[in-house]
Amino acid sequence: MQGSSKGPVFAIVGRPNVGKSTLFNRLTGSRRSIVGDEPGITRDRIYGEVRWNGHTARLVDTGGIVPDDEALIPSEIFRQARVALEEANAIVMVVDGRTELAAPDIDLARLLLKTGKPLFLAVNKIDTVALDATAENFRRIGIHNLVPISAEHGHNIGDLLDEVFAVLPFGNEEAEEEDTEPEEPAQEEEAAAEKPAVHRTHGEFEQHETRVAIIGRPNVGKSTLLNTLTGTTRAIVSPIAGTTRDAVDEVIEYQGRHLRIVDTAGIRRKGKTNLMAEKLSVVMARRHLEASDVALLVIDATEGVTASDATIGGYAHESGRSVVIVVNKWDLVTTGRTDGKPPADREIFEEQLRHSLKYLDYAPVIFISATEGRNIHRVLDAVVRVAAERRKRVTTGQMNRFLERVDFQRAGVPLAKKMRIFYMTQAAVAPPTFVLFTNRQVKLHFSFERFLENQVREAFGFEGSPIWFKVRARE
Length: 475
Ligand code: GDP
Ligand code: GDP
Known about the structure:
There is one protein chain. The strands form three sheets. Strands 8-9-10-7-11-12-13 form a seven-stranded mixed β-sheet, sandwiched between helices. Strands 2-3-1-4-5-6 form a six-stranded mixed β-sheet, sandwiched between helices. A three-stranded mixed β-sheet has the order 14-15-16. The protein has helices spanning 20-28, 73-87, 103-114, 132-135, 157-167, 188-194, 197-201, 222-232, 264-268, 274-290, 307-319, 346-356, 376-389, 396-405, 446-460, and strands at residues 9-14, 46-52, 55-61, 90-96, 119-124, 145-148, 210-215, 234-241, 248-254, 257-261, 294-300, 322-328, 365-367, 421-428, 433-438, 468-473. It is 33% helix and 21% strand. By secondary structure, the chain is an alpha/beta fold. Helix 12 links the parallel strand 12 (322-328) and strand 13 (365-367). 38% of the residues are buried. The radius of gyration is 26 Å and the shape is elongated. The protein starts with 8 loop residues before the first strand and ends with a strand. The structure holds guanosine-5'-diphosphate (2 copies). The site of one guanosine-5'-diphosphate (GDP) has 15 residues, from helix 8.
């Protein structure tokens, strides 16, 4: 069946052991049991069907037979590739992201580029986000559409399919063919492979816990907030010894997610003198930031933003962590103030806060009372939200469409600092990091970076997270 149905075809090519079969199985949801046996189709090609967004395409895996003899490998790959190329509408080249880029990869890429067919580079075995940066090393291969994936774990498969399906020539008759075929009884893993969108929309490691740091000056209410958080939610492990000798974490569950509040012993520790405590709070903030994904920066509403708050906020911004600003003790400044001042206005307070913490303009601000438990759920909602945003990934296709729309004339950059952007790609998540490929290596002009960041946020969000940009000149 698979070999015979009409519709566009895309091919998977690559060296042995890079994960072609694993990817094939992941995409088709089937074990490699389907051998193309029609006339004219050589036995070493394996076909499968891939359904995505209401369309069906055929996938050909060219890696069916590969001799063990190392010496034969390059020519064998080329032979397979050529056969597949003839009929493919698009090609996905797979490389092993855990190995060095090798000469045969470059030769193969050169051959594939010559075909002029839409070409995608799947850098496989990128099982953790920490490896995202290494995927960037494969840019040198010269294929612009690069997607880091983990075929084994199903990460970013949806992104890859988005990009490939965007270029495949589908006829109108292709849509809505969902129910035409009896499905194989799907195993859980295979069912997951059919709906890779899950991985895309929520960030690929959502099953992981979110590590939350509570940072701020002494007496702003950090330990009170911690008590309220653990008291109003289900504390599932309490407490666990951390890796550091005196660090203790507490894990709470909220909306089915695990939030690990890091180093709760450190949050409760009190300094001896005021000055000591103040200095210690800055040191602790840095340590807590290192261990976290999201920081709750607690500000005392009765004092407004102080210089130490700004220092701690600055560390948070530079650390690349996501930030939620929590204005605590709001109960003391609204109705029934004891200091004779008029009740505080939320908008005016936020305006002043934004002015003092300019660089944190992406961070949501939430007004709470930790002692009364007011708005605590908003804090938790914000943590869940920004944790997902920081792991969000923009595909190269989306990015290209975005760049076409941006009016760079409005960036207001001096002529001498101007450069041409060929394309831009998201190289990493947590924090979202974009690489600009340009005609020359220049440090981004401050106002240009600001402009670009605003445009990216307008288009894609990334609430709570800093956005990093890198420039790479194309030779
Ligand atoms: P092929 O020769 O290109 O078809 O490669 P296979 O699909 O047989 O995979 C080669 C090896 O890489 C196998 O041991 C797979 O389990 C492993 N592999 C495939 N994909 C991944 C992945 O995403 N991550 C890791 N860590 N290993 C993978
Ligand atoms: P930490 O040093 O940042 O951990 O601050 P604490 O949690 O020890 O709080 C310092 C003081 O502020 C304590 O007396 C708390 O009871 C009080 N406090 C904390 N949160 C609130 C709040 O939301 N409203 C009021 N009225 N008092 C608060």
